[in-house]
Specification:
Number of helices: 10
Largest sheet: 6 strands, parallel
Number of domains: 1
Distance between the termini: 10 Å
Helix content: 40-55%
Strand order of the largest sheet: 4-3-8-7-5-6
Oligomer: single chain
Radius of gyration: 17 Å
Mean pLDDT: 90
Shape: globular
Low-confidence stretches: none
């Protein structure tokens, strides 16, 4: 199976969930913060016109393909990869490991309302997970200094961002050197746990898939020498 794919000049990891979790565990205990994010089609599309978004995605320690349509657009994907991506299996396994290892989590969101929704879901699915606190950046005025101070005061093991992209990547780009945590896990607003499928989600994904394929065609026309989907 191809482990690395190139989409719009961004190298994405294509590990199985088990392999990705092993990668995360191998990083634990190091001195540097590990940056992980789930990648959506919209993030890839937006990266065409947002250099900060593209820079952050390109520099992540681990990328988790968050939508099976990305695999389809790249022309790869076993049944296993398509299924575990569709079911959001990495998110579930990640939080299981966090809960099992008794690691504390600080939740970063855009609004208090959204934070409350995700807290409820986490408490229901992972009742023994240690909460270090949370903060909604809607309370910040002018910059994110208050959010950083609130976060670092709790000395969390993991910062889980449910900020929507590209706000998430701009926050990380500006503040990554100030975050005192072992892991940054950005969900890009994709949600926690199992996803609910439906007609509305299906139609939205089809629209995004069409846009992503168009972006990929434009990129290939501008970069005919680019090689995609190399094995690493």
């Amino acid at each position: 199976m191809i482990k690395k794919i190139d989409i719009l000049g961004i190298r994405l990891d294509n590990y199985t969930v088990r392999e990705t979790v092993r990668q995360v565990e191998s990083f634990l205990g190091g001195d540097a913060m590990i940056a992980i994010e789930q990648i959506s089609m919209q993030m890839l599309i937006d990266s065409e016109n947002d250099p900060v978004l593209k820079e952050v995605m390109s520099a992540l320690d681990l990328t988790v393909i968050g939508e099976k349509e990305i695999l389809k657009a790249a022309g790869i994907g076993t049944m296993q990869r398509l299924k575990e991506t569709e079911d959001n299996d990495f998110s579930i396994e990640f939080f299981r490991r966090i809960e099992r290892n008794k690691m504390s989590v600080f939740l970063l969101g855009e609004t208090q309302e959204r934070l409350a929704e995700v807290k409820e879901a986490l408490n229901r699915e992972f009742p023994r997970m240690i909460s270090a606190g949370s903060y909604a950046v809607e309370h910040c005025k002018g910059d994110f200094e208050t959010a950083i101070n609130e976060m670092n005061a709790t000395t969390p093991d993991v910062v889980v961002s449910i900020l929507p992209s590209p706000l998430q990547e701009h926050f990380f780009h500006e503040n990554k050197g100030k975050i005192s945590a072992g892991i940054w896990y950005g969900t890009g607003g994709a949600g926690i746990g199992r996803r609910r499928s439906g007609v509305r989600t299906f139609l939205k994904n089809m629209v995004h898939l069409g846009k992503l394929k168009s972006s990929m065609i434009r990129y290939q026309e501008k970069n005919p020498e680019g090689k995609e989907n190399e094995v690493h």
